[in-house]
Design a protein that fits this description.
The chain is α/β, with parallel strands linked by helices. The chain has helices at residues 21-31, 48-53, 82-87, 107-117, 134-146, 158-168, 231-238, 247-262, 270-277; strands at 7-13, 36-42, 60-65, 79-80, 92-95, 101-104, 126-130, 150-154, 174-178, 190-195, 219-222, 242-244. It has a 6-stranded mixed beta sheet with strand order 2-1-3-5-6-4. Strands 9-8-7-10-11-12 form a 6-stranded parallel beta sheet, with helices on both faces. The protein is globular and about 55 Å long. The protein binds 2'-monophosphoadenosine-5'-diphosphate.
Length: 281
């Protein structure tokens, strides 16, 4: 329990009404008895610089950022943490006592923690990633941090995958690009398969990805969490692969944010999960 008073934080996006973050942080504020608030702020892209600069004057200790602000905000803040620099996007801005804005990225952390919490052990083998958008960048950085030494990357738009492979390959982790049409042929020896595209999300086209070549002891995870059990996860589960859904990434990326805003390292547990799930529209 803490007695901290009147701490203010929130999430900025455009639009913002679908965000689950107020519900998530609100649960933790109640649980830990913190006298604080976490609100959704609808901020048009043109207003983002002034709004971030005005946080201190409004007594707001920090904000999360969501679509479409994550990349643009990098050029507004005064400082970026190493993960944010590498990923090229931020989902958390904190304000220090002097009003300086620090941009951080906790998506890679959230991705890693979600897998570890499910029992996945750090690997030095091969991962396979579908997608080359913003979410995929965070996933690739997380996989490198986790110790994977090879990542195979497939994306509908080949150029984007090639750019990511160039940007993010390291001496310890080679990222190689696999053609989208026959991507599933690259599943041999893979220990972790990640869908980082929006395919399979409610309202989006399905992800049609045969798993015959995936080893039975590989793990499969999906960043999509609407539905919670995507067709990919269902298919993987039915053939005996371990699966991890994407909701946990959302929950775990919020932990460092809550700690920065309210000074408590909160717990991700089943009660939080149920509470957030009940808020999905
Ligand atoms: P996010 O920030 O969530 O990653 P994004 O940057 O728009 O969102 O990336 C969406 C990802 O889903 C991309 O990898 C995209 O592929 P392209 O780079 O070819 O656009 C992928 N995606 C979205 N719709 C798709 C579709 N119909 N078929 C194949 N891939 C698709």
């Amino acid at each position: 329990m803490t007695t901290t008073q009147n701490l203010k934080a929130g999430v900025m996006g455009w639009p913002i009404h679908h965000s689950l973050s107020p519900r998530l942080h609100g649960f933790w504020l109640d649980r830990y008895g913190i006298d604080g608030s976490y609100e959704a702020f609808a901020v048009e892209p043109d207003h983002l610089p002034a709004t971030l600069r005005g946080l201190k004057a409004r007594g707001i200790s920090g904000v999360n950022l969501t679509i479409p602000h994550k990349v643009a905000a990098c050029a507004i803040v005064d400082e970026l943490d190493p993960a944010a620099k590498r990923i090229g996007a931020i989902n958390l801005v904190t304000v220090d006592d002097n009003g300086r804005l620090l941009g951080r990225n906790t998506d890679a952390y959230g991705f890693e923690q979600n897998l570890l919490a499910a029992g996945f052990k750090k690997q030095n083998g091969v991962a396979f990633v579908l997608g080359a958008g913003g979410a995929a960048r965070a996933v690739l950085v997380a996989l490198e941090t986790m110790g994977f030494t090879e990542i195979r990357l497939a994306n509908r738009t080949l150029d984007k995958a090639e750019k990511l492979a160039r940007d993010l390959s390291t001496p310890d982790c080679a990222i190689s690009v696999v053609g989208w049409e026959n991507a599933s042929q690259g599943l041999a020896n893979v220990e972790l398969l990640v869908n980082a595209t929006s395919l399979g999300m409610d309202g989006q086209p399905p992800l049609d990805f045969p798993l015959e070549n995936l080893p039975k002891d590989a793990w499969v995870t999906d960043i999509v969490y609407t539905p919670l059990k995507t067709a990919l996860l269902d298919q993987a589960n039915m053939r005996g692969n371990k699966i991890v859904d994407g909701l946990g990434m959302l929950l775990h990326q919020a932990r460092p944010a809550f700690q920065a805003f309210f000074g408590v390292d909160p717990e991700v547990d089943a009660a939080l999960r149920e509470h957030v799930l009940a808020g999905r529209s």
